[in-house]
Design a protein that fits this description.
This protein has about 120 residues and is mainly alpha-helical. The protein has five helices and no strands. α3 runs antiparallel to α4. The protein starts with a helix and ends in a 7-residue tail after the last helix. The mean pLDDT is about 75.
Length: about 120
């Protein structure tokens, strides 16, 4: 999500809007955490579908775990730690680079020596 300034502004704006809406509705942090989960789900699903980055499945699992924790009313400490993991997933280095395909990995193997 942080590949460009405009994407960063949109991401932060969406998360803050969710936080403000949660505060207005009287649920405090729930709106903010729900938006972190929504942004992470959207970004990782896009990563799997569009970029073919299978590593984004792990980020999708973390986001879905946060969503389930919020839905069932889990204690706040594990919810906060899972939300931090979602945020860390969104800002990690090297996310936006293309992932290697199986055919590209086959070209990297050591050549067979002929004797």
């Amino acid at each position: 999500m942080f590949a460009s300034l405009s994407r960063s502004v949109v991401t932060i704006g969406v998360v803050l809007e969710g936080g403000i809406a949660g505060w207005y509705l009287g649920v405090g942090w729930l709106g903010l955490l729900a938006m972190v989960a929504a942004v992470t789900v959207a970004d990782t699903a896009w990563g799997v579908a569009r970029r073919g980055a299978l590593a984004d499945i792990a980020g999708l699992e973390v986001a879905l775990a946060l969503t389930i924790m919020l839905a069932v009313g889990a204690p706040m400490l594990p919810v906060a730690l899972t939300a931090a993991a979602c945020a860390a997933w969104l800002i990690r280095d090297g996310r936006m680079g293309p992932s290697p395909r199986a055919s590209e990995l086959a070209l990297v193997r050591a050549p067979i020596r002929e004797e």
